[in-house]
Design a protein that fits this description.
elongated; mainly alpha
């Protein structure tokens, strides 16, 4: 019974978006591997898939998760302001990586990827260890389940 309660407690934002973070890491790694192997057409395809998924993830957080967090916590402009700023800085690196992939430049890609990875690691740690968990704790089990379902939609 304890395992069921544990699973239910994290079915909302924490589970859905943490899994999305993992998928994003995997997609970026796949694109990097294709570029490193000089499979340029595949690298472009792989990277565009990552880029679209990352943009969708950011929109989901900014349009659904952050506003809900702000309402539930009663604090507009708190940690979500920092998170939105971090999204913009990561998007800059995504655009730089896209340009490097388009030019077939593994060196430039690696530089932008390293900057992105540093930002992404710090950003996702805050989200996964604080923001998502806090939001999930403030929702009922039904609300968490509904949010988790909504966040998993394509």
């Amino acid at each position: 019974m304890h395992a069921t309660l544990q699973a239910t407690a994290t079915d909302g934002a924490t589970t859905a978006l943490t899994q999305d973070h993992e998928r994003l890491r995997d997609q970026l790694q796949h694109a990097a591997s294709s570029l490193a192997d000089r499979r340029l057409r595949q690298a472009r395809t792989d990277f565009r898939a990552f880029q679209a998924a990352f943009e969708r993830h950011v929109r989901t957080e900014e349009e659904i998760v952050f506003p809900l967090f702000e309402v539930r916590v009663g604090l507009v402009g708190g940690p979500t302001v920092l998170m939105r700023d971090e999204h913009q800085r990561m998007m800059e690196q995504v655009r730089a990586m896209a340009a490097a992939v388009d030019c077939g430049n593994p060196g430039a890609f690696a530089e932008s990827r390293a900057r992105f990875a540093e930002l992404f690691l710090a950003h996702t740690a805050k989200e996964e260890r604080f923001l998502y968990m806090t939001l999930d704790r403030l929702l009922s089990a039904e609300q968490r389940a509904a949010l988790g379902g909504r966040l998993r939609q394509p």
